[in-house]
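Subgroup meeting minutes
Present: P.N., E.W., G.H.
Scribe: E.W.

1. P.N. recapped why we're keeping a running log of single-chain structure predictions: easier to compare across weeks, and new members can see raw inputs and outputs side by side.
2. G.H. added today's entry (377 aa).
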Amino acid sequence: MEDAGAKFEGEQLRATVKILKRVEPPITRKDLLSRPELSELTILKQPRGTNYRLTNDEAKMLESLTSGQTSSTLKTVDLWSELANQTNLGSDELHEIESLLQAKKQIILEGPPGSGKTYVSELFARYFSGNTLDDSFQDNLLTVQFHQSYGYEDFIQGIRPKTNDRGELSYQVEPGVFKQFCDKAQQDIKRPFVIVIDEINRGNISKIFGELLFLLEYRGKKISLPYDRSLFFIPSNIFIIGTMNTTDRSLAQIDYALRRRFYFYRLLPVINGRAPVLERALQKLQVEESACQRIVRLFIALNDRVQERLGEHFQIGHSHFMLRNIGDDWILRRVWNRSILPLIEEYFYNARDKGSVLSEFKIERLLNEESEQIQNP
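Output recorded in log:
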């Protein structure tokens, strides 16, 4: 048999290599692997391959490393990776939330209890405002929670009683927390200032916001406040992240005018038969693989049954199951009996066939039915 390389005898094989950029100092393989974003880099795992795919995060990190950008840029990339890790959300989801907030400056994260709305909002607010993700105080961050007693005087401006040194009582106009925050932002216009309004639909929106409904839509325009007649506007560097519980539909029916002024992003525990947030959380908690699969199957079966009965707004949140020892059967059953079932009972409080309905939510029944669906699709 003719030698396979014989046809190349006397021929010269050449390849033209063009140097596009010289990186100084050189980046070693160890340097690349030290970055969490690059730990799965295909070219490092399959060096004998030809074409290599990059994710968005991998491309950003490589571009930062090879372009000689400042350490602050790398810090931002690291912060993004940390945000994804702590929230258990994918890059695509976080990118969309970021783009929505940048576009309209106001966004509401909505979903059932336990879906991580407040947790994600506060972490994202820290990232977006350029701060670390810990609990340290930052003057360009503010968190408030609306409730039925919360009013315009608390949020924008109101008259408050004051006593002087002689014990004389007087009434003075005082700014609310949001107006104070806006005044501070106006003095530092280059930095983003982010306010998180938790449970935004639990307050009387029209009463609390007042002129804000106009100012939210027309950023930069000024309007006279009713108490001191001063002109007020929302600075361009103010960003608002609200959270809204969708389980109580009487609360979720918020003013249509407010809906027009916010983008809405829905956080659901189960999407298209998957529980991605819970799956990532259990892996991080190092729950044993077989237990992890069982919990995820149970969680999906639970929410499938809830959705059949009540709709997606009543899904059970994944936060109930995000415990380090949830793989232990007795821990799982404690969570189920003392957290999940009481919530289910509340959902079906007025059901005529309450006993029959509750029997559908036994662990064994949900797992068995789910197993049958898997075996006999």
